[in-house]
Amino acid sequence: MDEKTNGKIYGVIALKGGVGKTTVVENLGATFAKDFQKKVLIVDANFSTPHLGLHIGIIDPTHTLHSVLNEEYPVYQAIYHHELGFHVIPGKLSSPPTNINILKQKIEPLRRIYDIILIDSSPSLDKEILAAMIASDELLVVSSPDYPTLSSTIHAVNVAKREDTPIRGIILNKVRSKRFEISSRDISKASEVKVLAKIPENVKVLSALSQMIPIVVRYPSHEVSKSYKELASLLLDIPAKKSRISRLKDKFQSKKKEVENYD
Ligand SMILES: Nc1ncnc2c1ncn2[C@@H]1O[C@H](COP(=O)(O)OP(=O)(O)O)[C@@H](O)[C@H]1O
Ligand SMILES: [Mg+2]
Q: What is the total count of domains within the chain?
């Protein structure tokens, strides 16, 4: 693989289990690799419940981040080349590694090889999530539109601020667009962090999980997959394709200007 510099490291965090951190990591990873031709590494740094491998068909890995942090072998030996085009450092269901603090030191050199590194993290406020925060350039906070999750999100934002890791934004997952849900505007206002994407709640996510395939690969034209692709373009600063209506509006505005200038 070519050596290059300055890939970006994103920590995907939430102080709550089940909101969708691992689902975000596998799907963003897959879409960056498949639809944007990026060199991507996804890392399972959720040491207490490391399930990233189970989402993508890596069931019983022999080489894991646990052993890397226990200094059993170099980090390069724990990198799996997934058939879907991204690379993975899986975790292992066992007692957490003794030296979680060296996560940053182990991941940092890999930014010379990858365009994007996504770190899946633990949901509890302990040294596991702090290690993921410290190892990341920016954080993506996964939330959902209900009050208990919003409360955890505000807590996570405050912890990140204390640790001085910039937050890129919130990914609002499991959105049903019901009136009782908290709006993204209110979530943004309460947390003082902008909402980058709204990912709909849909049973197809569970169907894809049962096949251990990211939904962006299994059902690429599904609305959930489209939301992931839009989020990936936003993170890559690629302007989203404009709708027909907004193209017409732009055309109208420029004609209006022409007429005004003519006068
Ligand atoms: N947009 C979604 N629609 C429906 N189910 C989802 C969605 N996102 C995640 N899930 C499901 O929610 C459960 C928890 O997701 P997971 O990614 O494991 O959360 P976490 O890593 O935060 O604990 C999984 O069964 C997953 O398939
Ligand atoms: Mg998880």
A: 1
